[in-house]
Amino acid sequence: MSRNSTFLIAGVGLALALRTAPALAQVDSVRASTLPGRQVAEKAYNAGLASFNARNYPAALSSFDQAVAAKADFAAAYANRAATRLAMKDYPAAVADYDQALKLEPSAYAAYFGRGQAREATGQAAEAEADYAAALKANPTYAPAWYNRGVLRFEKGEYEAAREDFSGAIKADSAYAYAYHDRASASLRLGNYAAAVPDYSRALALQPTLLPALLNRAAAERRAGMLPDALRDYDAYLAKKADNALAFSNRGNARFANKDYAGAIADFSQAIALDAHYAYAWNNRAAAELKLEQYAKANADATEALRLNPKYAEAYLNRGHAREMLRQADEACHDWHQAAALGLAAGNSYAAAAGCTDAAAEVPGDN
Question: What is the span of the domain harbouring residue 256?
Answer without folding.
Answer: 209-276
